[in-house]
Write a structure and sequence with these properties.
Length: 221
């Protein structure tokens, strides 16, 4: 049986970094579930599929040729053999991804696609509903969280390091609004799975978080 480790939680809790480190350390595959909607939007654009064509979008989502490769700089996202790590973060791709994400046939297709990433020797799945919806039988489920204030500080530091101006109060307000929307949405709301281990990373280093999750993995039979 393929081992699946799900890491769910709110934005800014450190899921991405943790999942990258776990996948690299364990030699597992990596799934960045949030990127799949951006990839679907980009692939549809490349193929000339209308964003009003629900069936066409669903077909694109179901047939995505995508690989997430851990790298020293983070995660390399490959679409049909092309590195699109930077492209999928462009503003227009994000706008199109919002349209795609509202299409139920796409959501259904991506659910199947996400489950298809579970291949030997194992998978680390990063998202918001990995343990509650996508991989409900996963033997290791973690809900990684942190205070909204700490997550805002982390985001501010990231932006400043990238040379971009940012306002802490605005970042905090955006995080709290997104948290509220994620928790209250009717489809796959953000919440820990009943059998998830909840880790609060507010005062933890990434090494401490990684060690805590590795201890859970070592307890597997």
């Amino acid at each position: 049986m393929t081992v699946v480790i799900t890491i769910d939680g709110p934005s800014g809790a450190g899921k991405g970094t943790l999942c990258q480190l776990l996948a690299k350390k364990l030699g597992f595959h990596l799934l960045d579930s949030g990127a799949l909607y951006r990839l679907t939007a980009l692939a549809a654009e490349n193929q000339g599929i209308s964003f009003e064509d629900n069936d066409g979008l669903a077909q694109v989502a179901a047939s995505l040729d995508v690989v997430f490769e851990p790298s020293d700089g983070g995660v390399r996202v490959m679409l049909a053999g092309e590195d699109v790590s930077t492209t999928i973060r462009q503003e227009h791709v994000g706008m199109n991804a919002s349209i795609v994400a509202a299409c139920q046939p796409v959501r259904d297709a991506l659910l199947r696609r996400q489950r298809g990433f579970a291949e030997a020797p194992g998978l680390v799945a990063d998202g918001r509903d990995m343990g509650t919806v996508v991989f409900t039988e996963a033997p290791v489920k973690v809900f990684l969280t942190a205070s909204s204030e700490e997550r805002a500080r982390r985001r501010l530091a990231q932006l400043e390091q990238a040379g971009r101006e940012a306002d802490y109060d605005q970042i905090l307000a955006d995080i709290e609004l997104r948290d509220k929307q994620d928790r209250e949405r009717t489809s796959s709301p953000l919440k820990p799975a009943d059998d998830a281990v909840i880790l609060d990373s507010t005062t933890m280093t990434i090494d401490e978080v990684l060690s805590a999750v590795m201890n859970l993995v070592k307890q597997l039979p």
